[in-house]
């Protein structure tokens, strides 16, 4: 007797369910549901040829499995890697790991290998912004972090646990392009695409003042003494210097560059402002004399993205879309061509978007379009290490005063806090130094460690490149003053 339609339907459904379950068990979790559904659809067209009790599913062909996995946005190794990175928190080592995180050496090797072979740099990922993070800084003795984002917010973070302490209110109505903090960490300033610049009190979060311009403010920087704010204005290619207390323009230089200004920066004495442009030029403006002290037209082969002074104020570092960084002697306008580097190359595979020098001028940190953060030895002019992990363009970097931490901001909506305290003990860094034939000595001038080549005579090279440069500058100034006195 023929079975009623309902019983035939339920029997077919049971066979389909059995097929899906069997395929799930035989092929593993990844991609098996797609494979099972395809098998069911095939049976519904042709009809089963074997009874449900004796049915044994065939193995899924590799081609089918590959096509199924190809529908996922992430490959399984990448998913596994992201899970491992998310679970590991180097700043909270006492936390209990997630249940799915297997406690084996294989997982640890996979985690550390994500950065670079033989490197071990702990890091913490900071989540809190909903759009690209455009700017980042250390503040309050390296215990707090400051960030600005395209989600129109400026946030203050706790560096220890990575939590957001304050979201500054009366926020901009457009993406934040850059933010800056005073040396004493009392005030911050931020510019945005709404053509305004705002200043807040860090402790209270109160908005101190707001100024609107008739053009975009692509860069804003507090002077180290907190008296001035330098602004780079887009359309009229102007450099504007404001008094930070009475909020008035002290200097406004229109058409300072031939093309748009990309960034500006004060020197440590708050007396000079460097600006870099889309046209590849560098200019240094003197605040007191209100005149251009230095102008270099073709400093790079492409647009210059950022600039920063060394703590001594003698050198200016620039990063460019031509994939290089350069260090300039601002007294002569020439590349620093003695003692070590001329141009820092082979550090990034794409445009370099930002640069920052450590307080003792021994390290230069850069970030680029290739999603990496590069750590450079300034004295010897080579890349010590490359930090990998961001999923998109690195927009800004900063280094703590004690040189233990690096902060990076990215278009992937996150910041990363990297622990580089033990960077010189990393096998890869040791291998690089050994391959380059470097030996470490103590500088007799500033008491900082510096590297020399094994072929150099240790008795002749007793000071670091910065002290040697200072000596040459002092000798040049003394000789020039002596000649002037003779002429008089």
UniProtKB/TrEMBL annotation:
Lineage, top-rank taxon, reads: Eukaryota
Q: What is this protein called?
A: WD repeat-containing protein 88
